[in-house]
Amino acid sequence: MNVDDLRLTFPPKRARPPSRNDWPCRDHKKLVWHPDCGSDLAEFTRDLAPGRAGILTDIHLTEQAERHNAVGVGGIVVYIQDIDFLPNPRLGPGGRLTAQADDAAQRGERLFTKPFPHDPGLSCAACHIPSAAFVDHQQRDVGSGGLFKTPTLLNANSNAPYFHDGRYDNYDQVVAHFDRVFGLDLGSQDRSDLVAYMTAVGDGLQPYEPDGVIPRLTEITDFASVLSTAIPAHDTEVITLAVDTVGSELCELTERFPAPKNTSVSGGWDERRLARAALKGLVLCLRRIGLAGSVGHFDEAATE
Ligand code: HEC
């Protein structure tokens, strides 16, 4: 995913910080991290877990967040760059529907690329370019109160409410908006076909990673990669955050392997012992990184 898609912008400071139980600080669709959000930067970053890319069309970091932790923000960006869209079996190469999509969606796809009657240079697809993740990287005025960057339609089924201010609850309302603003004169069949198409495009398998040791470890490793930015940058605060978060995740994972002493489980003694030992080794290594980082021994932290 292109970082440009994330709209890392810095909105004007809020008059009043959000209350601590208002987490994640949600302002319509925007995810906002703020020191008063009731979560720390590490927790916030974890909320951006792989598979939630559909929700990440807007990430706003407050000015304060940026000053507070410029390097941490860099780390988050690195982490987010690895997040990709969820797989969607109804979409093939070039953003074209596959045979798995039904007839209504197929008809909707044709409408999506059809030139608008009053402006033949324009179509839905002219802005939401199917072969380019349904964006054109431009700010457009679609009669919603100003210029807004064209949002992606991939994995958007889980993104309601729609538009920058969350004014629409569903695709029917969005299609009615475009119909009205661009004078499309769509019949009810056209509208429902477009909605079927949006739904096919906006689908995504497994909104959350299946739970298990391998996906958990992958996620932990991704998160730990923040360290490769924070250590060279000598950012003690981020190092501590990452070490704490990854450490507690690893400990939790270790506990999933019943201890060899545990008599309620039989068998797999060697495997359990090895798994626990390997994870414990990682936890200890992390602690050394944390310690070295906290006292300014960044070279030592880096060699770990
Ligand atoms: C001129 C460029 C342009 C055209 C043409 C266009 N869109 Fe959009 N679309 C946008 C922009 C910009 C937004 C965001 C508006 C906002 O946030 O206020 C948007 C928002 C959306 C959304 C909501 C996505 C979200 O996550 O909030 C959907 C769905 C959508 N468009 C579908 C369509 C369909 C269907 C058509 C054709 C009938 C269409 N668009 C035509 C630029 C365009």
Give a concise summary.
The protein is mainly α and 304 residues long. The protein is built from twelve helices and five strands. The longest helix has 26 residues, at 269-294.
Please give a structural write-up:
It is a single chain. A hairpin with a 5-residue loop joins β4 (139-141) and β5. α4 (103-113) crosses α7, α6 packs across α7 and α8 packs antiparallel against α10. With 304 residues, the protein is mainly α. The protein folds into 3 domains: 1-86, no CATH class; 93-201, Cytochrome Bc1 Complex, Chain D, domain 2 (Orthogonal Bundle); 209-304, no CATH class. It has helices at residues 41-47, 63-68, 70-81, 103-113, 124-127, 171-181, 188-201, 213-224, 227-230, 236-255, 269-294, 298-303; strands at residues 26-27, 30-33, 59-61, 139-141, 147-149. It contains 12 helices and 5 strands. The model is unreliable at 1-40, 46-72 and 77-83 (pLDDT under 50). The strands form 2 sheets. A 3-stranded mixed β-sheet has the order 1-2-3. Strands 4-5 form a two-stranded antiparallel ribbon. Heme C is lined by residues 57, 122, 124, 126-128, 140, 142, 144, 148, 150-151, 153, 156, 159, 162-164, 171, 174-175, 178, 194, 198.
Give the key terms.
304 residues, mainly alpha, Cytochrome Bc1 Complex, Chain D, domain 2, 3 domains, three-stranded mixed sheet, two-stranded antiparallel sheet, 12 helices, 5 strands, disordered N terminus
Shape-level CATH architecture of the largest domain: Orthogonal Bundle
List how many beta strands DSSP finds.
5
- Radius of gyration using CA atoms only: 23 Å
Structural class: mainly alpha
Strand order in the largest sheet: 1-2-3
Shape: elongated
In the CATH scheme, what's the topology name of the largest domain?
A: Cytochrome Bc1 Complex, Chain D, domain 2
Assembly type of the shown chains? single chain
Q: Which hetero compounds are present in the coordinates? A: heme C
Average pLDDT: 72
